[in-house]
Amino acid sequence: MSRSFSLDEVSKHNSPSSCWVIIGNKVYDVTEFLPDHPGGAKIILKYAGKDATSAYEPIHPPDALDKHLPREKHLGSLDSAAASAVKEAAQNRRKTKDELRVEAAHAAKPPVSRMLSLWDIEDVARKVLSYKALAYYASAADEEITDRENNRSFSRFFFHPRVMRPVSQCDPSTTILGFKSSIPVFVSGAALARLGHPLGEANITRGAGRKGIIQMVSSNASLSYAQIAEARVSPEQPLFFQLYKHRDDHIAEERVREVISLGYNAIFLTVDAIVAGNRERDIRAPFELEEQEREADQASDSADKSAKQEKEEGGDVNLLGTAGALIANDDLDMSWERTIPWLRSITKLPIVIKGIQCVEDAVLAAEAGVDGILISNHGGRQLEYALPCIEVLYRLRQQRPDVFDKLEVYIDGGARRGTDVLKALCLGAKAVGMGRPFLYAQSAYGEEGVVRAIDILEREIVRGMRLLGVSNVKQLVPEMVEHVNWQPVLSRL
Amino acid sequence: MSRSFSLDEVSKHNSPSSCWVIIGNKVYDVTEFLPDHPGGAKIILKYAGKDATSAYEPIHPPDALDKHLPREKHLGSLDSAAASAVKEAAQNRRKTKDELRVEAAHAAKPPVSRMLSLWDIEDVARKVLSYKALAYYASAADEEITDRENNRSFSRFFFHPRVMRPVSQCDPSTTILGFKSSIPVFVSGAALARLGHPLGEANITRGAGRKGIIQMVSSNASLSYAQIAEARVSPEQPLFFQLYKHRDDHIAEERVREVISLGYNAIFLTVDAIVAGNRERDIRAPFELEEQEREADQASDSADKSAKQEKEEGGDVNLLGTAGALIANDDLDMSWERTIPWLRSITKLPIVIKGIQCVEDAVLAAEAGVDGILISNHGGRQLEYALPCIEVLYRLRQQRPDVFDKLEVYIDGGARRGTDVLKALCLGAKAVGMGRPFLYAQSAYGEEGVVRAIDILEREIVRGMRLLGVSNVKQLVPEMVEHVNWQPVLSRL
Amino acid sequence: MSRSFSLDEVSKHNSPSSCWVIIGNKVYDVTEFLPDHPGGAKIILKYAGKDATSAYEPIHPPDALDKHLPREKHLGSLDSAAASAVKEAAQNRRKTKDELRVEAAHAAKPPVSRMLSLWDIEDVARKVLSYKALAYYASAADEEITDRENNRSFSRFFFHPRVMRPVSQCDPSTTILGFKSSIPVFVSGAALARLGHPLGEANITRGAGRKGIIQMVSSNASLSYAQIAEARVSPEQPLFFQLYKHRDDHIAEERVREVISLGYNAIFLTVDAIVAGNRERDIRAPFELEEQEREADQASDSADKSAKQEKEEGGDVNLLGTAGALIANDDLDMSWERTIPWLRSITKLPIVIKGIQCVEDAVLAAEAGVDGILISNHGGRQLEYALPCIEVLYRLRQQRPDVFDKLEVYIDGGARRGTDVLKALCLGAKAVGMGRPFLYAQSAYGEEGVVRAIDILEREIVRGMRLLGVSNVKQLVPEMVEHVNWQPVLSRL
Amino acid sequence: MSRSFSLDEVSKHNSPSSCWVIIGNKVYDVTEFLPDHPGGAKIILKYAGKDATSAYEPIHPPDALDKHLPREKHLGSLDSAAASAVKEAAQNRRKTKDELRVEAAHAAKPPVSRMLSLWDIEDVARKVLSYKALAYYASAADEEITDRENNRSFSRFFFHPRVMRPVSQCDPSTTILGFKSSIPVFVSGAALARLGHPLGEANITRGAGRKGIIQMVSSNASLSYAQIAEARVSPEQPLFFQLYKHRDDHIAEERVREVISLGYNAIFLTVDAIVAGNRERDIRAPFELEEQEREADQASDSADKSAKQEKEEGGDVNLLGTAGALIANDDLDMSWERTIPWLRSITKLPIVIKGIQCVEDAVLAAEAGVDGILISNHGGRQLEYALPCIEVLYRLRQQRPDVFDKLEVYIDGGARRGTDVLKALCLGAKAVGMGRPFLYAQSAYGEEGVVRAIDILEREIVRGMRLLGVSNVKQLVPEMVEHVNWQPVLSRL
């Protein structure tokens, strides 16, 4: 990789038959990789012969090229004139309408100290996130019904608070797979944090470490697993790994061995996202954005013609969206019989099944001898009309209370308040995972946003425990919640 | 029919006592037919002595005059001067406000490749359809409650998705009455496709043929049964026939024999539409349109006086609407004892009862020995407060599971997503019919719209099956759905 | 009553100590009547010494003065100069903002032939009614919850329609207390029809007579009982009488004897309105109107001062409203033991208890031997949170089906569609009463409005029967309706 | 306290190390008190060396300084020049935007005689209250769901009204802990009445006394307990005391002994507010107000710079809100075993537990031998998702009817109508408490507002009793209410 290239030279390789791209002043030949790109060849070809850095970086970890592109395709670097030209072009690039909106939103956001709830933080994040990032973070399957119902379902559980119990000493801490957690909440796996903030997943790692809760790192993180491990506040800070299993067992094994060697502490095998959910907001984002820019252009200059032309052509629509690309190579043929023994054979780490969605599979998981299950419908992003997670948990408690003795049970999806967490714990959950709230927190305020979110949750949980009359999490019991048959009016949904 | 006529001559026959009309340059004497016209004499008299082509064509199949008007009333053709004059008049006619709106909507619609769901297609169709066509397609009985509930009812069924099952090989195909269908969906009978697109039902025939699903053709199609048969992509493409039984058994028999001879493959006897439902939007369409044009007129010229006059007169309102006219001669006295044996006596084709709305009648149908039942409330267009079809299916599954062993059960009404289809299949349906979605698809994008709609459904069904953990339709079982007692918030309704 | 008076003379009697009023050119001394006026003395004193005709007439029957004011207080007539002056003053009076609005609404309303449903008619009526009239007609107790729930409750009953049954011959007629009714609907008692139309209750009498349904006449009609009897289309036309029982048995007996002698055919004893409901819209109407006029005045002249003054004074608010005044003398101490035998002792006419609101009282009514019960919560105008009538009927059918064998059961409140009527009949009601719909119909279109309303209902009922598979009302059975546990989305409420 | 001070001298003590404040022309050294101030040191330091009267007075009773600040820290008075300067400064102070809004709202409000319901009064109060006062009064926990559900829950209880029962004599009175109450309603404890009206709690005391109902006085009243006792209309007027128990038993005992000596008649021990609820509206009020004023400033002058600066600093947010400060020293370790015997040991007054929220604790209270329980979730201000009070009452009636024989049961939270009160009485409550409605009534109209509110309730209760067929409160029985499974549409929520 000692060669250096002029822009002119690179620009000649601008077609499917020879496709070079510049990323971070380096030149890569991706011609042979085009058909294997999970996000499709089309998006790469848009940058054929050109600088692709700004599009590439937020959605790929730095080690992606090393892992996926053979060494010999790393052709070399730009020469200094080219590097300067690329840099200047990036600086002179006219900002898009959406980028200008984001800048203004960041300037106008309130100080983090005024964030009183996770909803407040989400409100800020929805303003400061780019259109594309918000579409990826917020989108869910089809009409997004399960996503909304995940949250609304908590509202049909009411408390039977107990009074006249000593609660001045109140300890909200618990353990998860034996690891201490300052509150019964963990960061659930969620990909592409750099879409929302340049420091990405490391914001969460540091915030979680400072406050004593545990982060589950996605296979599709936008930092490398090593970078995230390095971001820990101490070597003892536990990290869990959310495994998307590659269809090729060997590639999958390599991924597991990498995180073992980095000191990750548990494997959450994701089983509810073997194919991409139909996240229409995410899929639609590219052409919604295009429409926005076109309108902006029409106001300022005469870009009419090409816009019209493109419209008439229509062209392909990438139906996978950002999410689909990430899991394009996942294993569609996992099974209890094959996959659990395989995973056990390569690691001694605790194994949790992420994505259990009914009582029957919870029972099978217990029989398979895993260490825990995470009841989850992937934040409503996969199968529309999967039962909300708190409803599944409730059914498990009603129908098979014995399962809670055999493994640890967690839920994620829809929890936003301390009371949501407490309801799940009353029903037998050991902890509650949250994904989007931490993406939003780091997008709005970086590491400090993550710390604030945990502070808020801790305050809500401790207050809730005291008002329920309990002084530690073990005192949270099923008798303290009631599943009512009416639907409260929610101001949010 | 060798005579030729001048416009002057035709124009003299402009009264109930002698009423001629021009349709497609031909001259017809409809004087004696006036009292028998299902849509009423009034609408014909509006065109007495004049050219009626543009009003006639979209709502009558080309063979209607041959079938319903005696040969001797087909008087002859216009002479060439008259033909030119009629043509010129049609071209010079000032477009109505609604026609201009439709033209603009067509010009602005997005390319079909950006349609992500049936809802997207419906949104486009609602913009590009004429006021009258949309009123006919979209209208339902009374307050349209059953129409909305048909759709909403699906949302009270949630899934129990199964994980860790091999699903890379996933086959969504099934058979309907022994005929192969690429997905468990068929086109349910829906009339007057030419109201929405000049090629009408043939768009659906070709789209269905190309994608391997089956079309049920309405007795009230706006193309002739022969034209539709000819539109098939191959002679093997199956077609079902939706029979509205004429009160005169002989006329009814003639209709059945016609479709047998054309190679149709099954008879769906429609029993839920013996009288017209109260579709107020459809009934109201003529005077809503009149009002629109009047407002347009008042802006541009002084049509005030006649408008006012008409208003004061009030005049008759056709309470049947478009729909009522279509079934004006239907048999109100069908019975299990009389009608099924009669139909069996004239055809060996499979017989399905379309319009079963309760468990008791499903049982009677099984006892009557028919081949299938289509649980349907006619898209909510007939009896307001008929139970939604998925609710009837659920009750049948709960109360009389034996019926599913005796005949094939289908449902239609309200399904719009792959998940809707899968819920019905879990409960025992062999396939799900859709009517309006295909009318909308062909109205918005012609044959390509139909193909796109089927593509969307196939993608949604396959994705849904995989996320449910099944690899063929037989694995869809009642345990996979749960009827919940809350109502999700829907963004659409 | 031979004396005649000048305006000057009358105007001197303008105080509580001597209070004369002019009504229809006649002069009355109402000084001693002031404390007995059910609507309060204040409203009369507003007209002391002046012409009160326009305020008096729409809310009092013409025989009210004969019945309630001793002969010697009918002082005489205006002299001709006075009569002219009064007439001229009435003509020159500046119309109020509300009167101008009503005139414009009447001019703009669509022809009656375009009315497709009772809702259409109500929409017109809500536009053409005076503020005060609409407030009286539409208002209900407290937040008007029971009024809305009366209607919404019907929407939780769905049909099990039957197919393949001969229904070409379909007879919607029934009998009520032995009297023939062309459809199972009657006009329920509703007061003060002249507030909405100058011909008042006679519009309903004639419309009902022409279409063959039965009117129940309110004790508080704005025409005399005799005038209504005279409006019948034939002497055989049945009329029912809604009795508000006066606390003085003798006065009550006199009222009953009057209607017997006029040929009325049944007594509906009203038991749910012994005190006035809290109809805030009705109570608020006077000051809302005052506010409207004040705003109009402020625009046109300087009426500021007095308005401000009145505001500061505040003054009494009549908390009874129009409705309260009408029943100010009702009997609060009726009982099964005392009242039914008393009524039986003075008439052989059928007796129906109007206002049964729970199963227990339906049973007591059957034991008391009355001929019928009308399950009613007075259109939601009395006790907020009385159960909706269809819900009470349903409970009666579930818990005490024997009651239906002992007397006739009717319901009123909330029915607006043929399907509503059919649901009630399926559950065992003999007929369904409607009050407001007929007030609205006559207000909007007079007698023709009433005829149209009945035509609409008949068409809806016959269509509904056919689509349910029944050819006469006896075939409507409980198995045909199901009480569902979800709430449909209604476009109206 | 004989010394007198110049403003100059006071102004030197403007820091944490020496902090003096002026309240009502008196000078206090609060340096040592700073860390103990329940509302935090920051808010005091804002006034260090300055006049704090206007901020201090509405939220502290006049005896607060005597009780909480040692005698020697009451330094003396302002000299006459200083007193004049302070007075002049107060008069010349520019009114805030919010103060101007409140003044205009008071001028525009309708006369009290036009208030027809408690909702009307609340509507006025919401307009005339300062932003801060409304935020404190109206706010509730988290999303304020329990607050709304408290009210909505009543709407799922419908009546079975009885007819034909003598009700002309109707007595709505009852007793509470043996004390006569003209209607089964009492004023529930609610703090800081002077935020809404300068006369504060005394408005309620006098209104309640005049109408014969009983007031429960909050520990956190903004008048002294003595001032409230003095406001009674007669020495016999009963008063209840809502005890927030201080964590120090001796201080708590002192408080109880004070109210005993003042003649208070019962102790309501508050157990549901040991820590502050998360009332975000209240917490947010200071910075919302700041924002308002900043906007006003920016319009009129150039205050930009400091505003911007403050924003950038962010600064601490007081997460306790007004409410939190009030209970900062409450006892978190109360228990049935310890606290009830302690309270019994210091008083013979009846003891009621305020804040029972489930059946289990109602039973424990009965076993503890207290005189009554008030089922309450503190107006939804403490634990979000505590069951609504009427639902808890209903469960108690269903599951443990024996408890009603052992002690008196009251509820508060959400009742706004006479029908709400009657439903609770049917289910076994002896009386219903209302808090916010009386705060609103006195804020809008002072003492007359309180009288009007009670008049409205009395009228609604008597009317409701008559329409239910009962003539005294003992006749209200469980059979008269039904818990329905649907949710009525409410116009308010």
TrEMBL record, chains A, B, C, D:
It is found in: Mitochondrion intermembrane space. Residues 302-314 have a biased composition (Basic and acidic residues). The lineage of its organism: Eukaryota, Fungi, Dikarya, Basidiomycota, Agaricomycotina. Its EC number is 1.1.2.3. Residues 2-79 form the Cytochrome b5 heme-binding domain. InterPro entries: Aldolase_TIM, Cyt_B5-like_heme/steroid-bd, Cyt_B5-like_heme/steroid_sf, Cyt_B5_heme-BS, FMN-dep_DH, FMN_HAD, FMN_hydac_DH_AS, L-MDH/L-LDH_FMN-bd. It comes from the Eukaryota. This is L-lactate dehydrogenase (cytochrome). It comes from Polyporus arcularius HHB13444.
